[in-house]
Amino acid sequence: MNAPSVQAGPLGASPARAAISLDRLGGVVALLMGLSLFWLPFVTYRANRIVSGEPRLLLQALPVAAVLAVAGILVAVAGIAAFGRRSTVRLGAAVIGLAVVLPAVGFSAGYVMPPENGFARVSPASGFWLLVLSLGLLIADSLTRLRFGPWARLAALAVAAGAVALLLASGAWHDLSLLKEYATRADSFWREAERHVFLALGSVVAAVAIGLPVGILCHRRPALRGPMLQGLNIVQTIPSIALFGMLMVPLGFLAAQVPLAAALGIRGIGAAPAALALFLYALLPIVANTVIGLDQVPATVVDAARGMGMSRRQRLMQVKLPLALPIILTGIRIVLVQNLGLATIAALIGGGGLGTFVFQGVGQTAMDLVLLGAIPTVALSFAAAVILDAVIELTGRARP
Amino acid sequence: MIEIEHLTKRYGETVVVDDVSMQVGEGTITAIVGTSGAGKSTLLRMINRLIEPTSGRVLINGQDTMSIPEDALRHRIGYVIQGHGLFPHRTVAGNIATVPRLLGWDAKRIAGRVDELLNLFQLDPAEFAGKYPHELSGGQQQRVGVARALAARPALLLMDEPFGALDPVIRSKAQDDLLTIQRRLGTTIVLVTHDMEEAFRLGDRIAVMDNARLLQEGTAAELLAHPAEGFVERLVGTAERPFRLLSLASVRDALEPGFAEGEPIEVSTNLRDALSKLVWTGRDALPVVDETGAVLGRVGIDGILAHGRRPA
User: Fold this and answer.
1) CB contact residues (below 8 A), chain B span 63-82, against chain A
2) Strand order of the sheet with strand A54-56?
3) Of the candidates B195, B134, B185, which has an alpha carbon nearest to the alpha carbon of residue B163?
4) pLDDT attached to residue B41
5) Alpha carbon distance A109, A176 (integer Å)
6) Any idea of the CA torsion for A255, A256, A257, A260, to the nearest 10 degrees?
7) Would you tell me which residues 306-335 of chain A have a C-beta closer than 8 angstroms to some C-beta of chain B?
8) What are A345-372's pLDDT values in tens digits?
9) Where are the alpha helices (DSSP H) in chain A?
10) How many helices (H) and strands (E) does chain B have?
11) B85: chain A residues, CB-CB within 8 Å
């Protein structure tokens, strides 16, 4: 190729020739959007929830006027993604794109669905998912380039959550298969979601309550550190299913021998072994990060604290723990995100949680049901990560 | 008054401080000087019991430090270390308030004391109270470190290489400031340094340590006039001796009646600087003035040199 007229790269060409410059990631996003708009199915129609579906392109999925509007707006967004240079503009374009695509898929479901047919299902297809992914990429990229502070990121998360809630409440997605699955299971959905959060959060809280003192002890007694961290490391390497199995026997025995344990709901299967396993998985990162966090407090700072007459307890509470906090919180972030995901497995041993829908869906080859369990799990992990990252940044601010 | 009596610290077979006895007078600065590993930091840290002595004792105003609970003892003794050791998660005000808070002062009294100290160290409270240590320059951090140590009005201040992390220009200013503040507050200071120049500049008395032992202790003039043989002699620096002696005396000591041409010298200037000025301007004598500029007399090159001669 000779003398390319467009220059690749996020910084574009030199200002004199920069009338048009192609953004590398934006170019890929635009390409994906074009592909999903015109070649991939937007939704899938199925006569009932388990038969295989018929793909529908965007052109067939909406009335002509709506197709023109949606395609027109998204092509414009793709253009901004590829050639737009200001991150705020690109972010705005991506948000507008999502604001068009998300309601459109709900509208499409109502349009494709034959009237008076309670069994037919319309679900988002690869074209829709790819569109959402591309727009998500564009948003993530713009947010990274804008370098939002922690408060702005929390606000962005709140806005996103509010928008999704609004979309759900408005009934725009009412005809989508996912929401139909939800409608038939609304009660159990919230029960399992609550159980899921309880399992994940509860195990993390318990792990912090135990892991923090253990970490402090390991920091004070270096002889303990090696064996303790090795032991927890081994626990970490046991696959989750195997750990559930290993816990069944002692917990079952406990339930059989101690009436109080049984009365408290402790059994070989169910929530107890699930919570215990999640707790054990959470221990290593918390203990390890507590030890590392306390160890990295500068020796001169601790010496000064001692020299001013701070007792051991005062040094720990007023100097060492506050200075170790960002690292300890990083450990908590790791285990919270990890356990929100791992809690799905609890359903395998009757522990409940959103995994219930995933495994039911797999059993019935009903993809929509799998998504009903999977999407909230992913959303919860994502939100937890964003929130804790912001908290970590806020607590670590006053340091060099 | 601090009395150190036969203080010894042993780690297994190694003797780090070997039978050191000395006294530190009320309101004076004692500089403990020596090479690294001489045991001077250990000696200092035994005074506030950061290190427990193997044998011997320390009396503060007649009271054995072992009879005071160690935290309570340290609340009464200021402590400054090299690299300041400020708490990175607390503001300047929070750092200075550390010991008053431990002592349970009320918030108003603490705030008043913090302002007072910031002003004393020429740090504007409005600007600096809310800053974090990493937002300060090295010199400012050092001043906050000293202010923090003085917060609860300790009668005794221990300083371990307090200026070690500063560059020479800032160090010299920080030493002057410390002297000014010490004269004003009358705080007793024991200071550890490896820099003989610093010891001469700050110390009312100088204690020289080498290899765990206290070799000699006395005023700067005594050390210069009669250094103990060997290590102290080398440390004092044979060639430098006359000039060090000159820097201990001021123009006032060599003041002569009479008149001289040239740019006047202030009467508080030390003789080393006065000599330097005479040599540089190529004159034999210069007029001497007081702070107000009134002429007091003159200072001549012979009069200055007499002060640099070996004392009888």
Assistant:
1) 70-75, 79, 81-82
2) A54-56, A43-46, A121-124
3) B195
4) 92
5) 6
6) 40
7) 306-311, 314, 319, 322-323
8) 888 888 888 988 999 888 887 888 899 9
9) 24-38, 58-61, 64-83, 87-112, 126-146, 150-170, 177-184, 186-220, 222-237, 240-257, 259-263, 271-295, 299-307, 312-314, 321-342, 355-363, 367-395
10) 14, 13
11) 298, 300-301, 303-305, 307
3-state DSSP percent of chain B in helix, strand and coil, to 5: 40, 25, 35
Rounded-to-integer distance, Cα A105 and Cα A122, Å: 9
Chain B residue numbers touching A298 (CB-CB < 8 A): 85, 88
Which chain B positions have a beta carbon within 8 Å of A323's beta carbon? 87-89
Q: How far is CA B78 from CA A347, B67, B179, in A?
A: 61, 19, 16
Q: How confident is the model at residue A74 (pLDDT cuts 50, 70, 90)?
A: very high
Nearest-by-Cβ selection for B81 from A307, A323, A399: A307
B38 CB-near residues (< 8 Å, 6+ apart): B209, B210, B211, B212
User: What angle, rounded to 10 degrees, do the helices at B107-120 and B138-150 form?
Assistant: 130
The predicted structure's pLDDT at residue B195:
86
The residue type at A146: L
Q: How confident is the model at residue A3 (pLDDT cuts 50, 70, 90)?
A: very low
ipTM: 0.82
pTM attached to this predicted model? 0.80
Rounded to whole angstroms, the Cα distance separating B291 from B297 reads 13
CB B158 within 8 A of CB B80: yes
CB pairs < 8 Å spanning A and B: 69
Can you give the pLDDT at residue A255?
78
Q: Which amino acid is at B308?
A: G
Cross-chain CB nearest to A309 (options B75, B132, B134):
B75
How does pLDDT run across B246-299, given as a tens digit for each residue? Answer: 888 888 888 888 888 888 888 888 888 888 888 888 888 888 888 888 888 888
Query: Among residues of chain A, what percentage have pLDDT more than 70?
Result: 94
Who contacts A45 (Cβ-Cβ below 8 Å, separation ≥6)? A53, A54, A56, A112, A113, A120, A121, A122
Could you tell me if B87 lies within 8 Å of chain A, comparing CB atoms?
yes
Across the beta sheet with B285-289, the strand order is: B265-266, B285-289, B295-300
Q: Nearest by CB to A398, which of B71, B88, B149?
A: B88
- Chain B residues lying within 8 Å of A306, measured CB to CB: 50, 74
Q: From the CA of B211, how many Å to the nearest CA of chain A?
A: 24
